[in-house]
Amino acid sequence: MSEIQKKVKVHVEKVNKSYGENHVLRDISLDIAENEVVVMIGPSGSGKSTFLRMLNQLETPDNGTIVVDGFDISEKATDINKVRENIGMVFQNFNLFNNYTVLENIMLAPVELGKLDKVAAEKKARELLKTVDLVDKADVSVNSLSGGQKQRIAIARALAMEPDVMLFDEPTSALDPEMVGDVLEVMKNLAESGMTMIIVTHEMGFAKQVADRVVFFEAGKIQESGVPEQVFNAPKNERLQEFLSKVM
Ligand code: ADP
Ligand code: MG
């Protein structure tokens, strides 16, 4: 009998991380399959950002194993820059180059890292501007954009490297409410296109609609995980029940 096995894109096994006395991640194990969309929820300070940042080595785990795209990033010999090129990250506060134009922001990484020449990078950037519905903003300075537009440009910039995995850390938390929908729409389209995504968000409606799996972090542990219907409608963990009663 043949079994169809989904390819594991991100494998995390028994990872721990402390900052001094503060044990922030406790024995975290999680596998994320190709094309899977995982939404991470949980109270502030529960370790969600630290977890995401470990996946592209903005933080180093104290122990445990992290394999991304088949590369063991906990191994010293692994070229972390190569791995990072395959992981796009979008932050709460955009992290764009404010004195550059929109097009320059999107073109910068592929050109600097030698992935595309300038002509190809510009072509790619203009295509991505269609994806995020901001074609007319190509030549303006990012300073002149609204928060929601900046975040859509940040997504386009990450996509310019053609990553295999996209990480989002509260991408809509810094936005005015009327901007949130447009950003979530872009993320939803990206999910439907088959992108492997790990998203930290407090947008529970979005999580219900888009997530294949919801993971609840609390006190540095994965307390519960499952399909959205189960996590939101029939939570087992008491702390999850309490969390949901506050946010929903
Ligand atoms: P979350 O994203 O769920 O709000 P974080 O991962 O940002 O949680 O933080 C988890 C814990 O780790 C918090 O107690 C936070 O203060 C601490 N922490 C995060 N980053 C650092 C750091 N660079 N140095 C020291 N402590 C940190
Ligand atoms: Mg955080």
UniProtKB/TrEMBL annotation:
PROSITE patterns: ABC_TRANSPORTER_1, ABC_TRANSPORTER_2
Location of the ABC transporter domain: 10-244
Pfam families: ABC_tran (PF00005)
Family matches, as InterPro entries: AAA+_ATPase (IPR003593), ABC_ATPase_HisP-typ (IPR030679), ABC_transporter-like_ATP-bd (IPR003439), ABC_transporter-like_CS (IPR017871), MetN_ABC_transporter-like (IPR050086), P-loop_NTPase (IPR027417)
Keywords: ATP-binding, Nucleotide-binding, Transport
CDD domains according to UniProt: ABC_HisP_GlnQ
Claim: Zinc-finger is one of the keywords in the record: no
Keyword Nucleotidyltransferase found: no
MF terms (GO), sorted A to Z: ABC-type amino acid transporter activity; ATP binding; ATP hydrolysis activity
PANTHER family noted in UniProt: AMINO ACID IMPORT ATP-BINDING PROTEIN, ARGININE TRANSPORT ATP-BINDING PROTEIN ARTM
Protein name: Amino acid ABC transporter ATP-binding protein
Species per Swiss-Prot/TrEMBL record: Leuconostoc gelidum subsp. gelidum
